[in-house]
């Protein structure tokens, strides 16, 4: 009979050859994996005999395939869950929580594994894959409300809603689930008008550490409701489904402007000056990187801040009116290229607007911050990324005047009005090292301009202290207290323990 070590070495080699020699996250994992294999025994614990979904223990030959699939990112951390479980029902979840309590094993929920800190691959924890909790419930058109599971992806959710004339501010990217996205706040479309996505969460059904299922809302388990509107990847319960407040689907028009980095000094303040007149009817999204106007010859390609202004209204006329604040201003004059024709779009067309999603699995590290001074942040970020980013697909992103607010009750903490993030791309462990060094340089340079961070898009493996800076002092203190109330034995993996 083959011993487990042998099986794992073989599986590791199989997986590595599938990935190709360039994808190296796994190559450094041998020792931690070997160590974990020693401690495993049978395939499925007896206590989970009646669990109907998949259970993948470390002694299962599929373990590495699951390890690979649970997180979106190509480069994996050197940490190994004790087990992956994919429940099919609440009964399965009850068995799983009882087992976790009995064996004193920590638990972490996973919806689509897009969080850059890879909490879904926590050492020795049980990863609970909630992807089968993906039901979109009946839509009540009169109240514009519905229940939806954490495994529901952004785009299918909006397809179902759009058919009824409605829309929801789920992730810009169609293949991100609402599970983790909404817990951390959620920056979706039409943010200046609708605020953060979790502001549109009316209630949630949550399985607590003791296995009880409770409803959290403005009137029931109010502290739990407060926490889940903003806590991010450290929530201390399993969200089974959310009750969502949808909105009337708006009409949209789009205008585009490209600026070289030496134009930022004029361009960013020009947009900022228009925000009061815009009155939260338009969002100003900027991508900074090797993005070039259509038709740019190869030898003329360079770094740009490419700005899309999406203007919203109840009718197309309203959206056109909102767009005039920008199209009839100076912002076009500063641009090297612009297309200010107010192109009409439907809500679902928005999903095809972000070209950077295509290689998002190669992100090695990211930071998202809020600032009062986006001009300086973008200038410094652009200069350093242009000079030092080792992969030309690395880029920055900005949302000016994004209105990062949630009506109370919420743990989400408003820090400043403008959002800037950056994503460092790489394919090898050496890239990761170099990208972390660049992260450190950027952090030191930008620190004086940073008011706070966005909990969903910070790399807590490299910058654990940033979690604290996402919250006000009061809210941070209350988060710990609420966690203690609902999860006294720290059953759930959480950055609150760092
Ligand atoms: C390509 C891409 C595009 C993105 N676009 C956006 C965007 O437009 N706007 C934005 O705000 N963010 C965006 N993000 C960031 C995203 O919101 C966060 O990474 C978020 O945490 C991922 O959600 P998830 O459901 O995949 O969570 P996962 O990575 O699966 O889980 C992360 C953590 O959330 C918690 N969690 C997840 N599901 C549950 C559950 N059912 N019950 C309890 N806790 C749970 C757990 O603590 C878990 O560890 C994007 C990320 C990527 C990679």
From TrEMBL:
One of its GO terms (molecular function) is oxidoreductase activity. Residues 1-34 form the signal peptide. Residues 75-249 form the FAD-binding PCMH-type domain. Its cofactor is FAD. Keywords: FAD, Flavoprotein, Oxidoreductase, Signal. The keyword Cytoplasm does not apply. The keyword Signal applies. InterPro entries: FAD-bd_PCMH, FAD-bd_PCMH-like_sf, FAD-bd_PCMH_sub1, FAD-bd_PCMH_sub2, FAD-linked_Oxidoreductase, Oxid_FAD_bind_N, Oxy_OxRdtase_FAD_BS, TAT_signal. Belongs to the oxygen-dependent FAD-linked oxidoreductase family. This is FAD-binding oxidoreductase. It comes from Comamonas testosteroni. The lineage of its organism: Bacteria, Pseudomonadati, Pseudomonadota, Betaproteobacteria, Burkholderiales.
């Amino acid at each position: 009979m083959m011993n487990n070590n042998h099986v794992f070495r073989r599986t590791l080699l199989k997986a590595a050859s599938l990935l190709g020699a360039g994808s190296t996250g796994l190559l450094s994992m041998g020792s931690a994996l070997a160590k974990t294999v020693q401690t495993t025994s049978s395939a499925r614990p007896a206590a989970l005999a009646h669990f109907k979904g998949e259970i993948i223990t470390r002694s299962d030959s599929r373990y590495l395939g699951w390890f690979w699939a649970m997180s979106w990112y190509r480069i994996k951390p050197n940490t190994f869950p004790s087990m992956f479980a994919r429940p099919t029902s609440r009964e399965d979840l009850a068995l799983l929580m009882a087992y976790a309590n009995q064996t004193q094993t920590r638990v972490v929920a996973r919806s689509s594994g897009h969080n850059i800190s890879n909490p879904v691959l926590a050492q020795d924890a049980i990863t609970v894959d909630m992807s089968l909790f993906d039901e979109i419930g009946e839509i009540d058109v009169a109240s514009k409300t519905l229940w939806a599971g954490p495994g529901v992806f952004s785009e299918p959710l909006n397809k179902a809603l759009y058919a009824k004339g409605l829309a929801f501010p789920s992730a810009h990217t169609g293949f991100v689930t609402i599970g983790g996205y909404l817990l951390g706040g959620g920056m979706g479309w039409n943010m200046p008008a609708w605020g953060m996505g979790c502001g549109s969460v009316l209630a949630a059904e949550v399985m607590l550490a003791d296995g009880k299922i409770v409803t959290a809302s403005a009137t029931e388990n109010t502290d739990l409701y407060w926490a889940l509107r903003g806590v991010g990847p450290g929530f201390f319960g399993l969200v089974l489904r959310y009750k969502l407040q949808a909105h009337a689907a708006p009409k949209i028009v789009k205008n585009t402007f490209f600026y070289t980095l030496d134009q930022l000094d004029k361009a960013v303040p020009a947009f900022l000056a228009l925000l009061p007149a815009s009155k939260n009817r338009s969002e100003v999204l900027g991508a900074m990187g090797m993005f070039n106007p259509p038709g740019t010859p190869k030898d003329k390609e360079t770094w740009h801040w490419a700005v899309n202004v999406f203007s919203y209204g109840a009718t197309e006329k309203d959206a056109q009116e909102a767009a005039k604040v920008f199209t009839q201003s100076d912002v076009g004059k500063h641009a090297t290229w612009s297309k200010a024709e107010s192109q009409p779009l439907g809500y679902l067309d928005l999903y095809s607007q972000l070209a950077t999603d295509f290689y998002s699995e190669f992100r090695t590290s990211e930071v998202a911050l809020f600032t009062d001074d986006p001009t300086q942040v973008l200038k410094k970020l652009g200069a350093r990324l242009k000079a030092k980013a080792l992969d030309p697909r690395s880029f920055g992103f900005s949302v000016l005047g994004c209105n990062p607010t949630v009506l109370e009750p919420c743990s989400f903490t408003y820090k400043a009005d403008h959002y800037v993030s950056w994503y460092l791309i790489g394919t090898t462990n050496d890239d990761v090292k170099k990208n972390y060094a660049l992260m450190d340089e950027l952090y030191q340079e930008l620190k004086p301009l940073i008011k706070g961070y966005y909990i969903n898009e910070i790399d807590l493996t490299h910058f654990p202290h940033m979690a604290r800076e996402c919250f006000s002092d009061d809210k941070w203190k209350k988060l710990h207290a609420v966690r203690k109330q609902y999860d006294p034995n720290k059953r759930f993996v959480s950055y609150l323990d760092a």
